[in-house]
Amino acid sequence: MMQNILFTCAGRRNYLINYFKDALNGQGKVFATDQSVTAPAMVDADIAIKVPGIYANDYIKTLIAIIEEHKITAVISLNDLELPILSGNKAVIEATGAQLIVSDEQVINSASDKWETFKFIEQLGLNSPKSYIALEKSLEAIKNGDIQFPLVLKPRWGSASFGIYFPQNETELKLAYKLQQLELERSIFNEVSKSDMDHAILIQEKLGGIEYGMDVLNDFKGNYRATFAREKLSMRSGETDKAVSIIDPQLEDIGRSIGENLKHIGNLDCDVFKSNNNYYVLELNPRFGGGYPFSHEAGVNTAAIYIEWLNNSDDIDRFINYKEGLSFSKCDRLINITDRS
Fold this sequence. Notes:
It is built from 13 helices and 14 strands. It has helices at about 15-25, 40-45, 60-70, 85-90, 90-95, 105-110, 115-125, 135-145, 170-185, 190-195, 250-260, 290-295, 300-310; strands spanning about 5-10, 30-35, 45-50, 75, 100, 130, 150-155, 200-205, 210-220, 225-235, 240-245, 265-275, 280-285, 325-330. The protein is globular and about 60 Å long.
């Protein structure tokens, strides 16, 4: 069956464009939209289309027109801020006949709001770093010895390591908190943060130890299927830059617990720390993340699995041959964007 896949907010995710083109094997096309025609992923797509920004009044209307004109069969978002917008318009998007591979609004909120993530993880009985959304509460916790410096400050609703600070003392904490408030007001995250700007900053204990990334895979009905883990060896601009694939039953149990209870749709990117022999879940991102290529290259072809599910088949075992001990590194490449503006 022919499948036309649309990636919205395609950005720099060229690898996903190409993984899906390979998985389609000529039985469909990969489309990409972005508000910038020079976004790198637009170059590798079969068809690239410029669209308004995600907060534009005509954004959804524009997407629907593209879906209908090009007979799109599935829509996949690659942007944290866009996820709630698409999820909130799921009915009107799927009225076109296309399948929106985005989780429901409650799932998106539990993941995009880091305070809700913290509460969700604790409800599962899993560990998460001690967290606060009020400066006064964090200062009280410091005074009582519940947490100690250094700490982590980051936006409650944030992405891509925007606005992360590591204060070493109370003076730095207060200064960083005020600075981050000002930065949020001037950033793209202002729109999502303005509903509770007085509690829009997460103050968290800083963990040491080993950092892991996981892809937790659910099917399109929200049923848990598998977890694929990697140890992060280095980071760059908020994304995994080098990693080695691992197979760890404890991490798989954590992934299963998250997948079975969150019931997200498709792939979920998850960050975990191992500190003092305990695992701590930090963040959940219900989409393909920057760490997915490491899972793919280590033997799980989620792109092909998605195509199989879109074709109403569950014959996916042939696309899962995950091996541990495989190390990979990202690298930059130049793309010709001449005459694309």
